[in-house]
Amino acid sequence: MIQLGGSFLVGLVMGPALDTWITCQLARRNLERPKSWRLVNRWLLSVILGMGWAAMLMRVGWTGMLAAHLVWVTVTAAVVVTDLEHRLIPNRILYPGAAVTAVLLLAGALLDGTPGRLGSAALGAGLCLLGMGTLSVLGRGALGMGDVKLSAVLGLVCGYWGLEVALRGILTGFLIGGAAAVGLMITRRAHRGTQLPFAPFLVTGAWWSLMPIHTVG
Question: Using CA atoms, how far apart are residues 33 and 90, in angstroms rounded to an integer?
């Protein structure tokens, strides 16, 4: 419990630094942070990051894979915020985060003696990318390319734990997103043409799929 509490606090403290980085990356696209969301998102990001770090320590433990999972959580938390604010998943955040995650995943697998899982990780990323890309084409843009690329990053780490974990993460994200959309339409806060930020649902599904309550390899 002490270690989990410590990891939560570290993630919480890192929130402002991540928030500043997000601001810089958005500024390069001439995008300003919405003032009405500013204070809420700053605290929300810190809490999400703290919870994510604690969850990954609980899931992975002090192994070679921990660094990759912490970077993955940090990057996905960042794109949740940008998608909520601007309906945007910036490549400037996603691409470097994906590259660092992949390198650390490779290093962690070699360190832990689990290189065989790297094939499953790559397959998970590929299947998620292909599946989401197909849905984007069939849906005529209902899913943005940012969501498609994000799914590959989510599938990479989830796939390391098994293809069923990657698929469960994506499907769970769709279920949560669908339920949220239905709820918003029932309350007349959205209609069929409303573009909802989908990254929060995808990330929630992926994080949930890695929780220790599931029996994965």
Answer: 14
